[in-house]
Amino acid sequence: MKKILVFGLGRSGIAVARAAISKGIGVEIIDESPLDRLSKPDLVSEVKALGCALTLNWNRELSDLGLVEAVVVNPAVDRRHAALAAILATGVPIFSEVEFAYQISRGPILAITGTNGKSTTTVMTWLALRSAGVDPLLCGNLFGSGYPEQPLTTAALNGDLGQPLVAEVSSFQLEWIQTFRPKVAAITNITPDHSDRYNSFDEYAQTKYKIFDHQTNTDWAVVNGADPITSQLIQRSKIKARILRVGKDAVFNQHALEVFGRSIPYAELPFTEEHNVKNCAMAMMIAACSLEPNDAPTTEIWPQISKGQFEALLDGIRKFKGLSHRMERLGSKGGIEIINNSMCTNPAALVASLKSLGKKGRVLIGGVSKDLDFTEVGNYLRSSCHAPYLYGRDRHLIAQQMNLNPHEFETMEEAFACAAQESKEGDTILLAPGCASQDQFRDFRHRGDVFRELAKDWLAS
Predict the structure, then answer these.
(1) Which domain, by its residues, includes 35?
(2) Which of 83, 183, 245, 461 shows a CA-CA span of 20 to 30 A to 228?
(3) Are both 70 and 124 inside the same structural domain?
(4) What is the Cα–Cα distance from 26 to 6, expressed in whole angstroms?
(5) 391 has which bridge partners?
C-alpha cells in the first residue's frame, strides 16, 4: 500500500500511523472534533512529530480519496457512520486496528473479548506465560491497567518473530476485520452492553463472535460454557477451531478448580471472588493452548503441555495483584473501606461488583447509560443491603428503571460526599458506575483517577 486514511484520532490511530510510516506507507488522519473538544489533545503533537497530515473538525463530506488504498477506523467511530458507507461504495476497504495489526504481526495473537472480565483474563494470561518462560507482549484494548500494556499495532510492529501478543479485543475492534485470525480466541461472557452502538443485542453478540471467524482446526477457541448467550452462539454457528469450555474442560468443585483434570486448590489463589476464579480458569486454558507445539495433533481434546508447564502457568496467576480501576482497594478509615471499580460500565458488571463485596456497599452509580436497562440492578438492590447513590446525566432514567428512590446528585463528588457522611463501620464505599463516563469525564480512567483523589482526601481528613 502507498497510502492509508486513519479515521479518528486516538491512541490506536497513532499506533497505526506510526507503524504504517515505518513501513513506508503514507498516512492521513481525520477527526470530526475540533481541537478544543478532543478528548486527548496531546495526541496532536504526536501526529506532528510523525509528520503525517491531520485534519480536525472534519465536516463529514467525503472528498476524493485519491491514492488512499485503505481506511483504518478508530473504535470510537460508529460503524453506521454515513461516511463509512460512502467509503465502502468507492470500493476502498475498511480495516479495524486489530486487522491492520494482524497483517503486520510476526507472532501469534491470543485474543480475548467479552462484556466483562476480559481485561483481568488478559492480564492473567500474560502473567501465566511470563512465568512459563515466554516473553509475551500485553496489548490491545487494555489501557490504564497498571501493567505495561500497549496498542496491538505497536506490539505487532515491535514484537519479535514468534513472540506472542496477548490482546484484549473489543467488539468495536472486531467490526471491520477481514482476515484476523488469532491462534487462541476467547470470549469471557456476553451480556447487554453498548446498546447505543448496536441495533440489537443479537447484533452486539454476533460481533463479539466474529473473533472466531477466520480460525482453522489448528487454532483454539475458549468460551464460557456456563454463559447462555455464548452457548447459544456456539450451537448456531460453525467454529472450525478446537473448542474448550469453562464448565467442561475447567470445572469448579467445592475446594478446588480443575483445569484439564489437574487440581488447583482455591486456597492457593490470590483471590476469592467467583468471577476471578472463572477468569483464572480461562487464562489457564488460553495460556496452555499457546504453549502447545505447532506440530501437535489436532485430534487432541486438550492442549498437550507438561505438568511442569502447567505449574509454571499457575505460578504466574498467583502473582496477580489486580488491575487499576477494577475493584481497586484504595484504603480504609474507621472500618469503612473504599473501592474503585470505574471500569464497571454496564449493569451486569455492576451487579457482579456488588455480589463480590460480602458486606454493605454504598455504591456510586451513574454517567451515560448507553441505552441499557437497569431494571435487574433495582431487583438485586431490593434484595440486598446495598445503598445506591446516583449521579450524572442519566441518573433520573436509571432511578426510574430501578424503581427505587435512591439519593440523586449532579456530580460524582456530591454522591461520594453523601456516601462518606452516611457510612458506618463495616461499610464499603464503592464506585461501580455501570455506565460510560463521557458526561463528566474523558474516559473511565479519568473518572477513576478523580475518585482516587476524593478517596485520598477523605482518608487523610
Answers:
(1) 3-92
(2) 183
(3) no
(4) 11
(5) 366, 409
> At which residue does the C-alpha cell 427505587 appear?
404
Pairing of strands 53-55, 26-30: parallel
Do residues 403 and 427 lie in contact, with contact meaning Cβ atoms separated by under 8 Å? Answer: no
7 pLDDT band (50/70/90 cuts)?
very high
Total domains in the chain come to: 3
Map residue 172 onto helix, strand or coil.
helix
Residue 232 — φ and ψ, nearest 5°? -65, -40
For residues 338 and 153, the answer to whether their CB atoms sit within 8 Å is: no
* Alpha helix ranges (H) inside 56-112: 82-89, 97-104
Q: In terms of DSSP H, where are the helices of 188-344?
A: 201-209, 228-236, 274-291, 307-317
Structural domain ending residue among the three candidates 287, 317, 347: 317
pTM: 0.90
Q: Please check whether residue 56 lies inside any domain of the structure.
A: yes
Across the strands, what pairs with 340?
A: 328, 431
Assess whether 138 and 264 both reside in one domain. yes
CA atoms of 140 and 154, how far apart (whole Å) = 9
Instruction: Tally Cβ neighbours within 10 Å of residue 196.
Output: 12
Q: Please, which pLDDT band fits residue 62 given cuts at 50, 70 and 90?
A: low
CB atoms within 10 A of CB 46: 15
Residue 387, domain CATH: 3.90.190.20
Radius of gyration of the chain (CA): 22
What type of residue sits at position 384?
A: S
Report the 10 Å Cβ neighbour count for 146: 13
**CA 260 – CA 277 distance, rounded (Å):** 15
C-alpha to C-alpha distance for 80 and 92, rounded to whole angstroms: 16
Separation between Cα atoms, residue 136 and residue 107, nearest integer Å: 10
- pLDDT value, residue 60: 66
259 and 195 share one domain:
yes
